[in-house]
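Q: What would this chain look like folded?
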Amino acid sequence: MNSLHLVQHEVPLTWYLLLSAVLFCLGVVGFLIKRNLITMFMSIELMLNAVNLSFVTFAHQWHQVRGQIFVFFVMMVAAAEAAVGLAIIIAVFRTRATLAVDRIDLMKL
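A: My prediction, written as structure tokens:
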């Protein structure tokens, strides 16, 4: 217990925020560069997790629970997004036999 308490104080707040920013930027780059639906979907999840890390960091810094409550809300939205998004991806793959965004830009079958 005591060693865990020491580890928490050794890592400064800025490192958590820097990690969050790096993860968010990787998500943005992955979303903009990759042309595969699954990769774009995972990039969105990476961006949501980066935001969650910032919420938890600030909640810990200010000793409030609001940030952790927002994290649970974001996780619920991400779970709903994953369920609906994966269903759409499976439906697109069944009809088009590809997940390349450039080839599925029309809504018409």
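The chain has a mean pLDDT of 88.
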